[in-house]
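Give me the fold.
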Amino acid sequence: MQAAAPNVAGVLLAGGRATRMGGRNKAFAAVGGEAIAARTIRVLRETFPQVIVATNAPDAYARFGVDVVADAFPGRGPLAGLHAALRVARHPHVFAVACDMPGLDAGVIRLLVGRIGDADAVVPRWDGDIEPLHAVYAVRLLPLVERCLEGGRPAMRDFLPLVRVDYVSESELRALAAAPASFTNVNTPEELAAVGGRFDDA
C-alpha cells in the first residue's frame, strides 16, 4: 500500500514516566478494545513509509515490527524523544505524536503534513494553546535540538521560539470532524475513563 505521506516518517513519542497515571504505561491502556500504542502505530503505518517509536522501554514495542530507538538524553522529556527519532529518520520530515492520544486521525495528520513548506515545524493550535506533540518537524533541526538538550533547555516550548513554525489555526482544524478526538490526550485515570479506556488488568 502506498504511504499517504511518502517523504515523512511517523514517530510515536513514548518515553514518559506516566507519573499522573500512577506510573502505569498509558500507551498500553485500552480504548475501544485496542491499546493506544497499538492503534497509534497502526495509523502511522497506514500513513507513513517509516514508523519510529522513541522509548526507554524498547522491549515493550519489539513486537510491532517498527524502528525502536532509545533516548540519548534520558529523562529530558519529549524533546529528547524527538531527538532520538530525528537521528534514525530516513525522510526529511517527521510527524511526531504523543503516546496518549487514542483518537489519532489520519485525516488530521494529512492536513498537517500537507502544510509542509519552508517552515521548520508545522504545529497545531488547539483549545487556545499549541499542540507540539501532534506536529511535523524537519529532520534538519537535529543539530539545534541536540544543542538545546546539551544546554539544559529540554522544554518543547523553549525550543519552538528558536525555529520557524507554521502554526495551523484552530478554526482550520475544526473544519475536520475528527479533530477533537485526534487532539484528545489521556494523562490521568480520570481522562482515560472519560474516553471509555481502561487497563486490561483493571
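The helical segments are 36-47, 78-88, 106-113, 142-150, 156-159, 170-174, 179-182, 189-194.
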